[in-house]
Design brief:
- This protein is of the alpha/beta class and about 280 residues long.
- It is about 45% helix and about 10% strand.
- It has a six-stranded mixed sheet, with helices on both faces.
- It is elongated.
Length: about 280
Amino acid sequence: MAKKNIVPLKELNLTDRFLFDEVMEDPTIHQEVLSLILGREISLLQESKTEKESRISPLIRSIRMDLFAIDSEEQVYNTEMQKKRKDDLPKRSRYYQGMMDTGLLEPGIPSYNLLNDSYLIMPFDLFGYGKYQYTFVPQCQEVPECRLRDGTVRIFLNTKGKNDDEVPKELAEFLHYVENTTDEVAQQSESEKIRHIHERVCEVKRSEEIGVKYMQAWEEKYYEREEGREEGIREKLKELVGKKLKKGKTAEEIADMLEEDPQVIKELIKEIEKEGRS
């Protein structure tokens, strides 16, 4: 199996989900990142949970939250790392919010006022205004100063922001560091938090155990992609065989026309006939 497309662990940036999850498993680092984003000190109540799955029914789509935590004031934080542009992020954040809320109240709780305040934080310049940070809270359209105050906040971060004069310097430096997670960028920062985060990053990148885990994760995704590709090729072949069958061609004729193994074509014909009877 060729591995020439693997980016070495030591060259990953925090925009890569694997490195992000490994670094943020340290609750102290997670606290510091949330403090940088929200501009206030945060004390987490429990260990951060990476890849936390939430499902309320086998018939309803589950969600897998990159990083989930609760602080000492019982506020809930879900942080997602998205490297590639996805235009469904606004509605995805809405779905995540609903699924998070579903798991916050136990059966029999009489008042919805007991719902925890929650923050969804998803890094990406989805809106194109060049801002480092976009913060959304429910607001009345007719009376802008009137807010719903339902305890929810959704924050979208952008590592390529241009409004340095509108955000804390430390946040801008951190977002630059997320995209360029190098010794040089960390050393240029005046932030103790960023330097501390970088120490954790270096620790992760030096770890032989995490290096093995990274290779295993890459190979697993590689095989999944290959299986999907092979399945796609097989489905396309089956489609071609079906068209030839409708024209009255025999298995041998189809195999000859498509330059395929006759046994493979016969197996596909059996599948097509079985599907036709069901």
